[in-house]
Write a structure and sequence with these properties.
278 residues, mainly alpha, single chain
């Protein structure tokens, strides 16, 4: 219950600081734009209502893979480090809260901020979808929205985990956004270098299983796999990369990877935070 108390306070602080309002407006603009793009795709391909929903999801998935991590990390990286810098963490721990309660409460509170922003923003996007497209598969759209909330939760865990490992918000921010650069740029570059080193060329007839598995590991790739598992649209198979995907690249395994990405950084942060002097 102590973690819930911390989470409620953290959420109320976000509401008072208008962070929640700003994020909600951002996601609303984002999804309305996606709805408009989906309507243009529907006109081009003359698809039906359910397909139009898939068009929207495909139009939103890639930018969501960029927007959600940035927002979740901005919300999460100062959760513990910021409290340590200001000295308010000692006051918080002077109350009947264990360190674990504080960390978990921060995760819950800041996930709540991201989740409400996504849910409200995507609800506005649904209205836009009805306005621009005229028909929609509610089940598919709700599933995509909930998976995006899960994706946000994963990055909040990463951000709070990093925040728990350092005394400085500057260091936490460098770690958080350094991680984004690694996932967005470094991961692919390293993969290309490994492909060239092992296969002797970048232009292979079919990508080897190890390379497909490697590309499937980052959180954004796992997010895409999880969407494929729920909606039956596997992007790797659709792109013709391979017919029989390795286990790591199977759509259902995306949920396993998202769980690992949430629990490992958070677990390391808890372990480190429990052992440092404030």
């Amino acid at each position: 219950m102590s973690a819930i108390v911390v989470a409620k306070k953290d959420f109320r602080d976000a509401v008072r600081s208008r962070v929640l309002i700003g994020l909600t407006v951002l996601f609303s603009l984002f999804t309305v734009g996606g709805a408009f793009l989906a309507s243009r795709l529907s006109e081009l391909f003359e698809e039906g209502g359910a397909s139009s929903t898939i068009d929207l999801i495909l139009a939103l998935q890639t930018p969501a893979s960029f927007l959600v991590p940035v927002i979740a990390l901005v919300v999460g990286y100062g959760a513990i480090a910021g409290e340590r810098e200001s000295g308010s963490l000692k006051f918080l721990l002077g109350l009947p809260h264990r360190r674990r309660d504080v960390v978990l409460g921060k995760v819950l509170g800041r996930t709540g901020v991201v989740a409400v922003s996504i849910l409200v923003g995507f609800a506005v996007g649904l209205v836009g979808l009805f306005a621009f497209v005229g028909s929609v598969s509610i089940v598919d759209y709700v599933a995509f929205t909930l998976l995006t909330v899960l994706f946000g939760f994963v990055y909040v865990c990463i951000g709070v985990g990093l925040s728990s490992m350092t005394r400085s918000t500057t260091k936490a921010a460098i770690g958080a956004f350094g991680l984004i650069v690694v996932f967005w740029i470094g991961w692919g570059v390293v993969g290309q270098l490994l492909l060239f080193a092992i296969e002797g060329t970048l232009f292979v007839e079919s990508f080897p299983d190890w390379y497909i598995s490697y590309l499937s590991l980052p959180p954004d790739a796992a997010y895409g796999s999880a969407i494929g598992a729920v909606l039956g649209e596997n992007q790797l198979s659709m792109a013709g990369i391979v017919e029989n995907l390795p286990v790591v690249a199977q759509p259902w395994f995306g949920f396993v990877l998202l769980t690992i990405w949430a629990l490992v950084p958070l677990g390391l942060g808890l372990w480190r935070f429990d052992r440092v002097d404030l």
